[in-house]
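Form P-L/3: holo structure prediction, ligand heme C.
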Amino acid sequence: MLMICACSQDGKREADKVQEPSSGPSFSQEIQPIFDGNCVACHQAQGASGNLNLEIGTAYGAIVAIKSGESPLSYIAPGKPEQSYLIRKVEGTHVQAGGSGERMPLTGPLDAPSIAKLRDWVKAGAKAD
Ligand code: HEC
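OUTPUT (holo model):
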């Protein structure tokens, strides 16, 4: 596990430096907002579609290394986008992964930059930051 220490005197600069592509998108800053804007209307505590709750404060624990209901895959397998059912659902390749149902969101595909961001986050280890 990589520990990041922004403890130099020039703290601000150091903090900027750790935002390299290799550290991946931040869950709270970049991933949860995608869920908020595109998924939570259906995937929420009250009658969660597919038994999946993607609300803030709940989503991370509900998807990372948790087996999906529709397929043999986990929703999110850290480091492995191809093995992550949630990624397969938003890319529309879930049936080939042994899953079922529709491509997500039901209301129409996510924009490409959001899909890329989800993928990058998983690839970089699906960190909780
Ligand atoms: C309009 C309602 C709606 C929206 C918006 C929506 N979903 Fe879903 N979702 C469903 C329903 C209904 C199901 C169950 C049927 C199916 O899989 O097609 C489901 C199922 C799923 C599953 C599979 C659950 C399981 O148990 O394996 C995943 C993963 C998922 N959605 C992810 C997402 C993500 C990520 C978003 C946003 C990018 C999203 N959904 C947006 C309605 C929605």
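COMMENT: DSSP finds five helices and no strands in the chain.
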